[in-house]
Amino acid sequence: MYQINNFTNNDDIKILGELGAFSVIEYQRDLSVMPGEAITAYYASQMNVKRRQVVCDISKSNVTVQAGAMQWMAGDVKATTGIKGVGDLLGKAVRGSVTGESAIKPEYTGTGTLVLEPTYKHILLIDVADWDGSVVLDDGLFLACESTLKHKAVMRSNLSSAALGKEGLFNLGIQGKGILCLESHCPKEELIEITLQNDVLKVDGNFAICWSGSLDFTVERSGKSLIGSAASGEGLVNVYRGTGKVLLAPVR
Hints:
mainly beta, Double-stranded beta-helix, six-stranded antiparallel sheet, 4 helices, 18 strands
């Protein structure tokens, strides 16, 4: 039996959202500062630069987190590797090497509370069911998810995409039913959601943070020819085709 006081019930902490096993909290002021840092801390809070944390209720679901993200845990919480055999280990190692994500993501089980490291980034909670059960992530966004979700490496639709876009050939895909937790430089209030119905979206730059797994993602010239691309002033664009959703950040 355990009790946690002066945490989520502290008047300096605001609960931003709750979904599935996850709660997102935000510190309204940074009180752990010295006098010489007070001015910076004050203006940072006025510009919404605040510390945020994810609190996981393991009794609602086992959770999988990015390696090194755990800060503290209370109660009956056990950390496992989530590996289910040699084949699973090899598969995760290969997926980690091609997507740039950590090969082994710890899985936490039990009935207690798990709290992740604080961050100044914005935390997005996504129900993968709202994305028809499949979402593909831009590099570095994954923070945690319910362990009911499966991870896979998603290959670009054409091999030239990686070379043209100067990015990796693979992205991390999340599939199944459950809640996904992302770390974003952009707040939810500024994200642009575009829904495609057998249509196409072209983006000049790496502004998409995630997109439906049903979409084909390629990198192409902005015009039909080299001359057309030169005339438009744009070179290569990220192209999303098909039916599904894309979340765009206005800045990167």
